[in-house]
Design goal:
The chain is mostly helical. It has eleven helices and no strands. It starts with 16 loop residues before the first helix and ends with a helix.
Amino acid sequence: MDPDPSPVKARRRYDSTGRQDRARRVQAHTLEIAEKLFLQGGYASTTVAAVAAEAGVSVETLYKTFGGKPGLIRAIAQAGLAGTGPTPAPDRSDQMSARGLEPHATLRYWAALQTEVMPRVAPIILLVRSAAATDSDMAALLDDVNEQRLNRMHHNARRLNDRGQLRHGVTTDQARDVMFAFTAPDFYDILVTRQGWSIDQYGDFIYRGLVAELLPTPDNASAAGQ
């Protein structure tokens, strides 16, 4: 009788999850280091080599992952705009808006998202704006960031208009422009960074400004109902 055949060892299935998690952590750490160095030293003076050295990665890896300084800045801005939640802030905004809430609740939520993203986004966008005066890559990035934000504000304004929630006489384009102005980094920079307002005060300012500019006042509502 032949002996039992030796058991065949199952081939270990390659699991890339751990490797991907490590790569994400390294990228997040690199962006944190890059953000710190850019804000401390400015865009022109901060080198890829300096970022790589402090982050503990090779210059080659940094270029391969981010594409140099413009790519680093773009990635930092995108990470800031995504917010701190498990779901990117723009997606959460769309999910909440799709619920068809009362307009004051919608604007309150949008203002709250501003308080989440602006502490990180405002400084880096202002850095990009400053560098854009002499750097074509930063000028192109600034145009892209502004265009993306304007398109998102148009999307938000159209939803308010389609639901009949805008004040009489306020067009979709006007509402878009109002939201584009209130979501610019300038208000955060002036009120929080320079004047020392709390983040909650800033958020309430954004909310009250949007309400005043976009929604019917009690007098308007009464007149419309007559």
